[in-house]
Design goal:
One of its GO terms (cellular component) is cytosol. This is Cysteine metabolism repressor. Keywords: DNA-binding. It comes from Ruminococcus bromii. The chain has a domain at about 5-85 and about 125-135: Arc Repressor Mutant, subunit A (Orthogonal Bundle). Helix content is about 50%, strand content about 5%. It is built from 6 helices and 2 strands, in the order αααββααα. It has helices at about 5-20, 30-35, 40-50, 75-85, 110-125, 130-135, and strands spanning about 55-60, 65. Helix 1 (about 5-20) crosses helix 2 (about 30-35). The two termini are about 20 Å apart. The model has no long low-confidence stretch (mean pLDDT about 90).
Length: about 140
């Protein structure tokens, strides 16, 4: 599994919005400048986040974007699954069911299942609030 630029940038965008005062709209061009990300690329990502209800948008002179919920609500897993799709390390674990024809004979399936569990345990237990608290210790996203 490799996280794409889209997934990494979506997480950075959400963290940036989470660091702003709650309820305050932020212009996407400001986020682009702070994060060093192309405005065009952020426009594509914000569309996905807005359609999913993770981000609210407002038009007008005080328009922009803000989180729909508190930073504690959003996990890294939520954001990455939205932008990346499955986080499964192998194709046979994608989706809700293991549909591999070799499931009963697969001697390595337990390895991929353990890896999937480890990935899920990490991404589903770190929130935007955790990232912000951790960045206070000089970690860079």
């Amino acid at each position: 599994m490799k996280i794409s630029t889209k997934g990494r940038y979506a997480l950075r965008l959400m963290v940036d919005l989470a660091q702003c005062k709650q309820g305050e709209n932020v212009a996407l061009k400001e986020v682009a400048a702070r994060q060093g990300i192309s405005l065009k690329y952020l426009e594509q990502i914000i569309t996905v986040l807005t359609k999913a209800g993770y981000v609210l948008s407002a038009r007008g002179s005080n328009g922009g974007y803000r989180l729909a919920h508190e930073p504690e609500y959003y996990t890294v897993g939520m954001i990455l699954r939205l932008t990346e799709g499955s986080l499964a390390p192998v194709a046979c674990l994608e989706g809700n069911e293991n549909t591999c024809d070799r499931r009963e004979q697969c001697s390595t399936l337990f390895v991929w299942e353990k890896l999937q569990k480890a990935i899920d345990d990490v991404v589903d237990n770190i929130t935007l609030a955790d990232i912000i608290a951790n960045s206070a210790d000089n970690y860079v996203i």
